[in-house]
Amino acid sequence: MITLQNDVLLAVEINELGAQLHSIKRRDNGLEYLWQGDARSWGRQAPILFPFVGRLKDDQYEFDHQTYHQGQHGFARDRQFAVVNQDDNQVVLEQRSDDETRQVFPFEFILRVHYQLVAAQLQVSYEVINPADRSLIYAIGAHPGFNMPLTPTGDFNNIKFTVSPAEEYSRIVLEGPYNDSGHPRLIDMTTGFNLDHQLFAHDAIIFKTGGMDFAATLTDLATDHGVTVSTKETQYVGLWSAYPAKANFACIEPWWGIADNVAADGLLLHKQGMSRLAPGASKQYHFSIKPF
């Protein structure tokens, strides 16, 4: 386990398996902000989604006349990362393509995850590098879960969800595990709303952010503590909690990609929300987590 800490407010733990966050605490109040996982509802904590976000139709896709099988959210979350640079308040971890990944994803890649503590904020960057001589087609996203409520005596229904800018958004509806972006709905976020487990009866609430700066905040109204996830250039941000398990956590998920469309034909070249990276190029994706 990797530990980062600073003299201001934060102590963070990171697991080299999946480069997944394991703990986020403020030193001044001792609260654990990150969901600690529970197999009865959701056993993960903050998986990195790569090279796919969401589910593929029939858990498969076709590229270059060959069919590949791949489960929900890709494979990066279940593979070891190597530490390539570390000091007290930052770390860089790396995963590379190999014979195992090529069985399900026929591209060369280098995926680096940067975590850095800056005052009371954890800054996260995903860096994708294409070392090959052909384009890399992929999607990437984050899936951090937060304890909500933050105390054992709290109430999930007393958690307020707000966003900035506080305005009306296009909401992408899911039909089963697939997106129905052709029939979006408007969601009024001018005042936000309190959480309710029933909100997630049909999976995540997906905001189409379209590349704009976007911040989402969960506030435990009983304590006035919570967390803000600020995103840059995301196409979508998801809000999710387990259902019908009704566990005390909520995820704020910055996505640069999305599950297959209900009308998807299975061809990778046609898949919605995928990025294309030129040979030798690299791209970074940024968001931050600020517990308060």
TrEMBL record:
InterPro entries linked: Aldose_1/G6P_1-epimerase, Gal_mutarotase_sf_dom, GH-type_carb-bd, LacX
Q: Which GO terms describe its molecular function?
A: carbohydrate binding; isomerase activity
Q: Pfam families per the record?
A: Aldose_epim
Name its GO BP terms in alphabetical order: carbohydrate metabolic process
Q: Which SUPFAM superfamilies match?
A: Galactose mutarotase-like
Where does the source fall among the domains of life?
A: Bacteria
Query: What is the designated name of this protein?
Result: Aldose 1-epimerase
Q: Which organism is it from?
A: Limosilactobacillus oris DSM 4864
- Write the lineage as a comma-separated list: Bacteria, Bacillati, Bacillota, Bacilli, Lactobacillales
